[in-house]
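task queued by scheduler; priority normal; single chain, no ligands, no partner chains; default sampling; output format set to structure tokens
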Amino acid sequence: MSAATLDERTKREILGTSHWLNVRRKKGGAMPNTRLSEEEVRQRLSLCDGNSDVVNELYDFGQTLGAEVIDRIRAVESKATSFAAYGAAIVTFLVTSVAIWSRLGNQWSPWISVCAGFCGLMCTYFSLRVLALREYEWISEDDWLKTECLSNLNTLKQYRILTMWGVIHSHGKIRSQKARELRRAQIWLAGSVVYLVYLLLHVAFLRSFDNSYWMIPLWHRVVPGCFGVPGWEHCGGCGGLLILGLTLAFIIRRAWLVRLI
């Protein structure tokens, strides 16, 4: 079999693998583990002995990957800063406006505000975890001036590729951890916004009934007489409390599932 045939076959295999990966991404399937160990990296670098063009390509692409993973960490931390500010702002808004929504609401309003404030605090907590300092692997002075590699440029670049892999591998793991924490903060922020909407609709509903004063006596007369439920007005409150609890359980479950990814 000729070299040209081998090259074409290799290209087809690579393209087929890329197509399979894209299909798995679109369908939401589990991605295979593509991380390599140090021993696997050394074995693959040994295949490049005597081929300076391949070594140069790997070296240049490794520099690009290193810069990209650092940029991704910065982007995640930038979003975490915004989420922390949003969560703190929601808690501050609820605390400063407690007199207003307490006057406009009823006995169930504090429960809604507590849920919203709790979600805001959890959002801020996970955002601060994203911003927490982490330890990264970096190129040491000994790695930079490795004595065994100074006599040959190709060997030196191969060792540079190995050290860059260590840096990229370390930063990639930290970025994945930060991304998971940021996603959990996003879920808690969304939950806080949902509870704020609940609070707004709750107050609007109560105000609308206060304005329609003739409807309250009507319901108090008709419902107990027809259905024999003297405490009917408590059913709506219990139902609302059930909705709050189910919403909070759903948010906690979503945040927990992110931890398992």
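post-processing summary
- The chain has one domain: 37-216+225-260.
- Residues 13 and 19 are 10 Å apart (CA to CA).
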